[in-house]
Amino acid sequence: MSGYHANAFTKGSPLGRYVIKRFVQMVVLFLVFFALSWIALQAIPGNSIEQQLRLNPNLPPEAITQALARRGLDKPPLEQFWLYTKAFFTGDLGVSWSRYPQPVSKLIAERLPRTVMLFSVALLFQYLIGFQAGKYLAWRRNKRGEIAITIAGVSLFTVFYPWFGLMMILLFAVKLGWVPTNGFIVEATWRGAPVSANHVMVIMFFSLLAVTAFIGLTSWASSRLDQPNRRRLVKIGAWVVGLGGFWLFWATNQYLVYAKDVAVHLVLPVSVLTMVGFAGVMLITRTSMLETMKEDFVTTARAKGLSEAMVRDRHAARTALLPVSTSLVLAVATVIDGGIITESIFGWPGMGQLLLASVVSEDIPVALAAFSFTGILALLGHFAADILYGVLDPRIRVTSQG
Amino acid sequence: MTISNEVSNDAPILDVRNVVMHYRTEKGDVSAIENVSFSLKSGESFGLVGESGCGKTSMAMALLQLQAENATFKGGEIVLNGEDMLKMNPAEVRSHRWSDISMVFQGAMNAWNPVHRVGAQIKEAMDLHIRPQLSHTESRERIASLFEMVGLDPEMMDRYPHEFSGGMRQRAIIAMALSCDPQIIIADEPTTALDVIVQDQILTELKKIQHDLGMSIIYISHDIAVIAEVTDRMGVMYAGKMVETGPTIEVFHNPKHPYAFLLLSSTPSITGPRRKLAPLEGEPPNLLDPPPGCRFHPRCPFVTDQCRTEEPPLAEIGGGHRVACWNWESVPPLSEGLRK
Amino acid sequence: MRASSKFPWRFVALLAVLAMIAAACGGSTSDTTAAPGDDVTETTTGTDTPDTTMTDDTTPPSADAFEYKIAVIEDFTTDNYWTYLDTDNSVYNGYLLGGQAAAVYTQVAPSFTLAPSLAVDAVPPIGAADGDNWVISVALREGPTWSDGEAIDANDVAFTFNTVKDLGLGGNWLSSIPLASEDDPTTTDADESAVGLLSVEAADDYTVVYTFNGAPGLPLWQYGAAQFPVMPEHFWGPIVASSADAETFEASSGAGAPSAGGFTFTSREEGAFARLSAAPYYDTGAKTVVYENGAVEYTSPDGVTESYGGTPEGDVVSEDVVGPYASEVVFTVTGGQDQAVLALTEGEVDFWLTPLGVQRGFLDRILAEPDLEVITNPNSGFRYLSFNTRKFPMSDTAFRQAMACMIDKEFMANNVLQGVAISLDTTVPPANSYWHNASIEAICAGLSQEERVAQAITILKDAGWTWDVEPAWDPDNLDVIPKGEGLKLNGEAIGDLTVLAPGPGYDPLRATYSLFIEDWAQDLGIPLSAEPTGFNVIVEKVFGPTDWDMYILGWGTGVFPDYVVDFFESSQDSAEGGFNTPGFKNAEFDALAAEFKQATELADAQQLVFQMEEIIATEVPYVVLFTTPVLEAYRNNLSFPFTAGLGGIQQWNGSQASVRSSQ
Amino acid sequence: MDTKQVPESLQRIEVQIPDRPLWRIRAGLLWESFKSNWKLFKRNRVGLVGLVVIILFAILGLAQPILFATGVWDAKIYDVRTGNDTRVRIAEMTVVANVDEVIDPTSQIDRRRLIAEGENVQVGDVIQRELKHPWPPDRHHLLGTDPNGSDILSQLMYGARAAFGLGLLAAFVTVFIATTVGSVAAYFGGWVDSFFMRFADLLLMLPILAVLIVASSFGRFKLWHLAIFLGLLGGFGGTAIVLKSQALSVKVKPFIDAARVAGGNNWRIVTAHLIPNVMPLSFLYVMFSVTGAISSEAVLSFLGLLNIQMSWGLMINKTQSAGYLLNPATWWLIVPAGLAVTLLAGAFYLAGRGMDEIINPRLRNR
């Protein structure tokens, strides 16, 4: 009796068609986005060269014309756009104007790991804590404490984030001195380091990913086990093995001291991001749970004699997970945009800062690359969210094919 | 039409005694179940009939202790195999759910969790209640046989609820209700949302299963015809009270409560005797502030002054037929209809 | 059935293994990809430890060797000196790289006295005509070496010039190396007659020959070409040879480039820190004494004493025995000003290099630390209101004078912008003492509000302006009531005027100032409104089409006041790409400017600048408003050769090679 | 109670023929629904808290012009832009070497501070010194003054008006567009729908903050420009999608068919039937849009990218650029403004949630 496959994804062609259709839509959307971004950036008064050279009265005017020519800015706008687009889609992101002549790809390669590091950890905590909190909040509806938690949650959710971040720096970094105030590494630790910070962060990210994936998937798989005892055992085992493996990996790692330095610097921004972000997840989860809890199948589950925790986790929460996971995917897609403030406040030199600086300095190649990057992330995010929705909600699978 | 079922004379497996349940709301207490009693013997089928809002679904939920959060029991007991469920702690209640009393829900679509496979949802109940626990294979085999019993292709167990038609879902619900060999199944409007032909199939299926497995079923429906078709005994509820109870044949053919009388008069019957159809006028009372005396008196064509002040008891009128009406003797035979 | 029951297990195991592998590979892939693409990190973070250079016996006594830790709030963007001087000319790159170049002549801190560096002669030779051209031959000293021991010679000077010229490097190179127009590939026929450098050649190892296409004055020669940065040919030559174009060349790394300034660039972690290490310095041990009158007394490491810029007289302003004393200069990039202050107060850094100066609000926190010292110095720059003199009514001198009269700079500096702004009347600030014309007084200086109103009315009336309703000072309300209405010149009314000023988010000082100017103008009946505008928009507008009315911006200026010419000479009109944004046209001024450009004697140039400043003060194309003080904070175990001077310590990159620690 | 749907076959519905004019019935119904909704809203404490805070800020914003008009405040001192308290506060102070030694900060002063401010004196000297701004709160300036000597409370009040103006304008633009777009897209479907929905996708793709930064680089980006820009982004973006789905659920209701059968033209059906029924949900989104707009403005001002005269975000920005940010001693420069943004944005959000529980049938628990 092995396998009655009702999974729509295995049926092939309708889904294939759907993916192709979506892909074409995505490409068109991206082209429009790309062109609009270029136009908008181009339309900003002044340009990068003027900003750099205009205010030095000792410069002959030729210096500016020459600099413009070297960046191809002497050509008519349409030609510039055509040349840039052609290069862009053949993989050449060009060179930065404000940091001429550094390649844009090099700047991005330098910044990206840092943003990924910061936000992957922050998102992990946000969603873990937010989802659990939302679950309990919905379960406690109209009970004591709900209003207080909701108001606290909303306050964190709508708090003026830059200000809140600064207040946290003031409290934890300045007054209490528990954590560094800013930056991502300390010079003294890294002097003569045999390795770059990005390298260490890449290793940190993947080790974290591996552990999270291991624990998450094992726990998920354990929920399919029949006996509660064995289930608990496997779950605990997963944590022990996962965390133990993580510890072992780093305890024996030559880069431990560097990783520690990065980790210490991560504490405050991640905590603040978590505090601000988890509330949003909590509220989504709560709303979604409240809707789910009105469904008949929750009554069915109770009638079956399932414990409240099982009803909550396996039935109500499992279904309420849909919008939450969608929002996670979309949150990943907006990381760079969100990074602008976080990175400015905590002095974390990532993609967000690069984006901000490039727009302010009218460094169009860098800005456009960063824009395109966020645009592609957003497109893929929406696409992934749809697919994920289909995976998590079997009802959608059929409709998305048809 | 009669149902040939051995009705055992043993002590009832379920005995509902004088249950009073209120909903606490902003506007005051809603008296949803007022002093309701009935009992159920092993292998027996019992029907509860009444308009929407009369308390029959509240009663069904109360039997599983699934009443809404704002419900409170003001009295009575629900004795299952000698134990009062109202006195049990939540864990004890849970252990009885499904293993002793299971339920076929109304609106079968929503009763299934859309994100789990049907088989898994059935297995979940079995894992919880069947001891020793079945192995994976054994569970699947059991589900397969249950599916066959209710007339479903066993392969369907690995599908999601939305891939089932309405009738199939209802069959699957029945399979799930049977999965832990309960003593009692509560069928709450089991066929309401289905088309007539499927309705009939499902009812036949249920009857057959009850016959084969010898379990007790409580049918709950607003459709008195359905109740008449499948039950041994029935009760008629009105505004949270049991107004008439007795053997189904007796009540169906010879209703003695004016409400039951009017209800039957307003329902065309294919299977029953020909009769004149009479409309049931007015609306059920507001249970926040139920009328004094007999709750039916504002709508009752046989109303007397006594009805307006004194509450009639549910009194035996012979043959296990009991009626809560001061003037039950004025109620004419069904075939005559209501004279204007 | 079995299979499906086990499925998740296998899946999990597979994924876990994959993830672990990915983690392991993640490291190694980035390893291999980083290496070839990124020479910088490879060589700089590699194993060539700075200790090897430290043990070199030519470095100064390491008894008081210490790390000079500096906070900066913006990251460095390049480690290539050529790129830095082209368009990556941020002050931060300057802090990091500025010290590594050699120069034939240089200006000595803090008096800005012109003194020889590589050259033998105390003052730059004037040279002589050679046909149409002008040839100057400069003898170089034998002895100065790069940090790697190679001699600094005439070939390096010529190489630097040729690289800029041949590769077509641009940006700020062109302000140090004024190429003759014929050779400038980007210039068309205009301005071909302007004087510029034709060639720089090494006649022999220690003789440089500069050829101009005409006689150069002070701006072009002594304060121009004679001071251009010189780069080591033996290091950069091969890189130039292998670079196809300027872009490739400027993208190359400058790591390991020998320096002529006591420190070499060692390593950099983007966004975090950068380091310089002490290196053998040919001038180590030399003593420089600067006197009050600007004269410099220089004693070379081998004890030969010379003096430049006049005979030493008066107090000693600064006395400096060149190090380097620090073993390392470590720059920490902090996220912002607040973080820099924290680094300072918590002892993580010794000094904070910031072109913005320490803001007044930080003083509380800095002064809470007993071991921090704060100094204040005048800034070399000014903020000003500019009129578009091409347009009515700004074209009318009386109008401009009346506006200038109404602007009460003392009130603004003392009452509104307390302590953060210093009132200023000339484009050359008093702190630039040699070039500052102290006799100039702003229009209506020292008058009260009431007197200013009266004076402005008189100025306007005298020039033929009339009102429908004449403004008057109401002594009861201490305000102008009624305000002027219907101001006209010969019947011509004034349309709505706008003063563009940066918003409070960019510069609160100028934003506030603009609002007061709006008020004062309206008192007179001038329909002026202040419009907060983005900095880039103002720049584009005022250097582009000439449809603006007034704006407020600022200039950061050098010490040598050739900018006065650039800002107001009629040929420099911004409509034609110059810097004369007001469109100021004044024949008398133009004549003085032409004379200034040809001047070869400092005293002559000084008098010319004085006269030009007087014209500006009377004709007011600019109303110079204020300047800001530069506050700097440092740990008091540091000792600098001087702490008082225009622009502060940061003007000299934090005196890297001379700073000592008392520890 | 038994909430399950049961056919109404057992009930009889009596139809009353109204004898009052239709508008009075409508008004009556509206009033009734308002009353019952208000009751529901009142019970929801969360929403009530939000509403109270909103009203408090509204009062704060309205108070400022009144204070000026009644002469309680002199514009020369309290104007948020050029106001400047030129009164002189003199204190006699002894010069010490380090503030750590200072016992009484009003009578002693660090010599290094004086040097930094351009006065050269010796330790031990006694000087008459003017107290410089920012001044801590006193009875003239309830929340103190900023480094330029203008009143923080006055700025806060001005900021409240700016926030309300911006927030509400942005929200109404958002909702006006979103309601129209959503209804039109839902009603007409087809390519109209596709066009608007793809456009919405495009806007959802945008990195909003980055786009706002680009927009603000256009130099003369005023507050109301920002409001309309935010309104357009929201109105054609996410909110339109939500309202479209609401409109879709209204579109299939029988009365729409009835109207169509009765010969109503499309436009009339959209404006008279569809939009009014989408309105309640629209109003909910007004609340959420206000929150978004206020936060966006504050962030942009905080980054110093908006060229405006005064706002809460700008107050923080100015504090930061003047160096008073992480200084607990001058808390009045940073706490009121930050708190105000948080409170007002939060209040609109809370009020929105309160309304959500009334309007959104899926969340009603009764």
Topology of helices and strands:
The complex is a heterotetramer of chains A (402), B (340), C (663) and D (366).
Chain A lengths: L12 H31 L4 H6 L7 H10 L6 H13 L14 H36 L6 H13 L2 H15 L11 H4 L6 H26 L5 H24 L4 H38 L2 H8 L4 H26 L1 H12 L4 H10 L3 H29 L1 H8 L1
Helix pairs in contact in A: 1-16, 5-9, 5-11, 5-13, 5-16, 6-11, 7-11, 7-14, 9-10, 11-13, 12-13, 13-16, 14-15, 15-16, 16-17
Chain B lengths: L13 E12 L2 E13 L4 E5 L6 H8 L7 E10 L2 E2 L5 H7 L4 E4 L3 H4 L6 H12 L6 H14 L16 H13 L5 E5 L7 H18 L2 E6 L2 H7 L2 E6 L2 E7 H6 L4 H9 L38 H5 L5 E4 L2 E3 L17
Parallel strand pairs in B: 3-8, 3-9, 6-7, 7-8
Antiparallel strand pairs in B: 1-2, 1-4, 4-5, 9-10, 10-12, 11-12
Chain D lengths: L21 H22 L1 H25 L5 H4 L11 E7 L11 E3 H6 L9 E5 L21 H37 L1 H16 L2 H9 L6 H14 L1 H14 L2 H8 L4 H37 L9 H10 L9 H29 L7
Parallel strand pairs in D: 1-2
Antiparallel strand pairs in D: 1-3
Helix pairs in contact in D: 2-5, 2-13, 5-6, 5-8, 5-9, 5-11, 5-13, 8-9, 9-11, 10-11, 11-12, 11-13, 12-13
Question: Explain this structure to me?
Answer:
The complex is a heterotetramer of chains A (402), B (340), C (663) and D (366). With 402 residues, chain A is mainly α. Chain A has a domain at 105-362: MetI-like fold (Orthogonal Bundle), CATH 1.10.3720. Helix content of chain A is 77%, strand content 0%. Chain A has helices at residues 13-43, 48-53, 61-70, 77-89, 104-139, 146-158, 161-175, 187-190, 197-222, 228-251, 256-293, 296-303, 308-333, 335-346, 351-360, 364-392, 394-401. The two termini of chain B are 30 Å apart. In chain B, α4 runs parallel beside α6 (166-178), α5 crosses α6 (166-178) and α6 packs parallel to α7. Chain B is globular, with a radius of gyration of 20 Å. The model of chain B is unreliable at 1-8 (pLDDT under 50). Chain B contains eleven helices and twelve strands. In chain B, strands 6-7-8-3-9-10-12-11 form an eight-stranded mixed sheet, with helices on both faces. With 663 residues, chain C is α+β, with helices and mostly antiparallel strands. Chain C has two domains: 23-45 and 58-331 and 631-661, Dipeptide-binding Protein, domain 1; 382-627, Dipeptide-binding Protein, domain 3, CATH 3.10.105. Chain C is 30% helix and 21% strand. Chain C is built from 19 helices and 30 strands. In chain C, the strands form nine sheets. Chain C has a six-stranded mixed sheet. Chain C is globular and about 80 Å long. Among the domains of chain D are: 90-130, no CATH class; 152-364, MetI-like fold. Chain D is 63% helix and 4% strand. Chain D has a three-stranded mixed sheet with strand order 2-1-3. The radius of gyration of chain D is 28 Å and the shape is elongated. Chains A and C meet through α2, α3, α5, α9 and α14 of A and α1, α9, β14, α10 and α16 of C.
